[in-house]
Design a protein that fits this description.
By secondary structure, this protein is α/β, with parallel strands linked by helices. The chain has one domain. Helices cover about 20% and strands about 20% of the residues. The strands form 2 sheets. Strands 2-3-5-6-7-8-10-9 form an 8-stranded mixed sheet. Strand 9, helix 4 and strand 10 form a beta-alpha-beta unit. It is globular, with a radius of gyration of 16 Å. The two termini are about 20 Å apart.
Length: about 220
Amino acid sequence: MLTSTIYKKNVYDLKDYKFKVLKPSKNAKLGSKVIKGKFKDYKFFTLTLTERETCPKDCFHWSTCYGNNMPFAHRMSTKDEELLKTRLYEDIKSLKGKKALIRLHILGDFFSVSYVMFWDMILKDFPNVAIYGYTANNIKSKYEKSRNIASTIAFLRSIHKERFAIRSSNDLDNEFSANSFDVVKPVKGKSLLCPVQENKTLNCGACGLCWASNDKQIIFKTH
């Protein structure tokens, strides 16, 4: 059974990593900035961790992770959690008040309760920052660690609202979820297919539903 990325040479020890950990988006699907809604003109920044190594073992896409098709992605090591937090804090501080919407995580997931709470500190310290993304951690998981992480994410979501828009993956009972087309099909009035994947909008920055729509589940086709 795979326990980490298949591209181990692209996992970077942060002691030797000479670039910023938090990177401005150059992804065409994501876009470079938000162009509508509450976070209009916020620039996108991304964080990439190591798939599987940071993910709950009951993730539906454990073996079929789209990271399998991303051989060139720089994956940040999480073996030294405090160093990761330090580097991230420095990167966010260097934005100097510029509006930023951080996409967590291009690969990987929330891997500890203390790491989730780090983002609580970021949102309190930096009012110019908002966060969105997805997590396979689930309050109904058979793994206690995953349940604890999911509960902490839900707590932060209740405090920070749209500024911490982390959707639960394949949690069909949760309105604020992002689900796989392999698991469930869209239901009118309850969910919708990702408009970007349907070529109905230019990119995530031109859409905004993942962080702005509280009553619609988003359905994604398998990458």
